[in-house]
Amino acid sequence: GEPIEQPGILASIGTYTGTLINAGAFIVVVFLVAFFGLKPMATALTASAKPAAIAGPSFDDVQRSLPTPDAPVAAITAEA
Q1: In angstroms, rounded to a whole number, what is the distance separating the alpha carbons of residues 8 and 71?
Q2: Please, where are the H alpha helices in the chain?
Q3: What's the pLDDT at 80?
Q4: Whose CA is closest to 41, among 53, 52, 33, 49?
Q5: Rounded to whole angstroms, how far apart are CA atoms 33 and 31?
Q6: pLDDT attached to residue 64
Q7: Distance between the two ends of the chain, CA-based, in angstroms?
């Protein structure tokens, strides 16, 4: 008999290329979900309570610093 040529390693890999692509895509999706979903959630749950922003002036202080519409009207009527 004549020896029959066996398929090489590339032929075996070619048979399972679709499966390898699906497995790689699944691993990438799991990594992205863990990185963008679970990691921020865990960070938010374990973070200590700290102020969300730098403390600035209170709303009342800001309101007092704004000009009021009554002041120009009073100045105009006082001049006349």
Answers
A1: 92
A2: 9-15, 17-33, 39-46, 59-65, 70-79
A3: 60
A4: 33
A5: 6
A6: 66
A7: 125
Distances in Å between the alpha carbon of 63 and those of 10, 57, 58, 66?
75, 10, 9, 5
Residue 45's nearest CA partner among 55, 56, 37 is 37
25-76 pLDDT, tens digit per residue, is 999 999 999 999 988 888 888 887 666 667 776 777 776 666 666 766 667 7
Amino acid at 2: E
Residue 31 is predicted with a pLDDT of 94
Q: How far apart are CA 15 and CA 21, in angstroms?
A: 12
How far out from the chain centre does Cα 52 lie? Answer: 17
Rounded distance, CA 22 to CA 2, Å?
39
